[in-house]
Write a structure and sequence with these properties.
This is Spore coat protein. The protein is elongated. The longest helix has 31 residues. The protein is 78% helix and 0% strand. It has 2 helices and no strands. The model has no long low-confidence stretch (mean pLDDT 90). The chain is mainly alpha-helical.
Length: 74
Amino acid sequence: MVQPMTAKELEYIADSMSNEDLLIKQCTVASHTMTNPALQQLCSQVISVHQQHYSTLLNAIQQHQQVAPTQPQA
């Protein structure tokens, strides 16, 4: 059974999602400014990897929501 995450774990995941989002944006800008097709393709691959990471982190938070207590624990 999946256990609810601690506040610290949720904070870490939120920070990681922020970092992944920033990397996606930076790679997108880099990809649009490059003229070398091989480098553009590499940027696209890196973007895809970071999008997968973001999705994995989002999925972890969604799973947490399903098992998280709805009332503060005493």
